[in-house]
Automatic annotation (TrEMBL):
Species, as recorded: Sulfobacillus thermotolerans
EC numbers: 3.1.3.71
Descriptive protein name: Probable 2-phosphosulfolactate phosphatase
Catalytic activity as recorded in UniProt: (2R)-O-phospho-3-sulfolactate + H2O = (2R)-3-sulfolactate + phosphate
Pfam families membership: 2-ph_phosp
Enzyme type, top EC level: hydrolase
Length: 229
């Protein structure tokens, strides 16, 4: 487990990686796919997102800066921005402040999944069946460790055999154990949760706390897009 993507990220060219940005990018991507989108491409930069849309106007363009939807985009970074009526059968390009940048950093990994509390069990199972465990990368917030991502890492590590756990994995697990029956309360203590609640996004925090709401893991396909598995 890496607590923020800037932490000594090792060479991942032979490692199965799970990237976590619970509030909100990876929770939102899992929801976009659960609501029937064909695929989601997380991109780091706004210009790249616009360039992709120019090439293919049918794309749905989504994301945030300062937690707010971007001018000229179709949707923001809230899971509630992507109901079935908006995304069914569509491809979605998403750019966010931290999460999608962390995903770009893992481009060389042979296998990448996106994890969050809403699909923790499915991701743990997919990772175990694809590889011998591997690495969990918490995106963090603006370069800092974020409680919500370590919490979600704990929900995935829960499914690992204890002997496979590093101390960082055990720290994540201990945090999850502390809050497992009160995940919404736990999430709300996180700095980034408090920041987005202050912007009126409490519903997104409540949604992100719904452990194992979704049955599918989100994994990268051969084209580099993320799909349900
Ligand atoms: C990010 O990638 O920084 C987050 O998903 C921010 C957010 O809450 O929208």
């Amino acid at each position: 487990v890496i607590f923020r993507w800037q932490d000594d990220l090792p060479d991942v060219s032979h490692t199965a990686v799970v990237v976590i940005d619970t509030l909100r990018a990876t929770t939102t991507i899992a929801t976009i796919l659960a609501n029937g989108a064909q695929a989601v491409l997380p991109v780091g930069g706004v210009e790249k997102a616009f360039a992709l849309k120019e090439q293919d106007p049918r794309l749905v363009l989504g994301g945030e800066r300062n937690n707010r939807p971007l001018p000229g985009f179709d949707a923001g970074n809230s899971p509630y921005d992507y109901p079935r009526a908006v995304v069914e059968g569509r491809r979605v390009v998403l750019t966010t402040t931290n999460g999608t940048q962390a995903v770009e950093r893992t481009a060389h990994a042979p296998w990448v999944a996106l994890g969050s509390l809403v699909n923790a069990r499915a991701v743990a199972q997919a990772q175990q069946s694809a590889h011998d465990l591997g690495l969990i990368v918490c995106a963090g917030t603006e370069g800092q460790v974020s409680l919500e991502d370590v919490l979600a890492a704990g929900a995935i590590v829960l499914h690992w055999p204890q002997e496979a756990c590093t101390d960082r994995a055990l720290i994540a697990r201990a945090l999850f154990d502390k809050w497992r029956d009160h995940l919404y309360e736990g999430l709300k203590t996180a700095q980034h949760a408090r920041a987005i609640i202050a912007q009126g996004l409490d519903a997104d925090v409540e949604y992100a706390a719904r452990l194992d709401l979704l049955p599918h893991a989100v994994v990268r396909n051969k084209e580099g897009w993320f799909v349900n598995q």
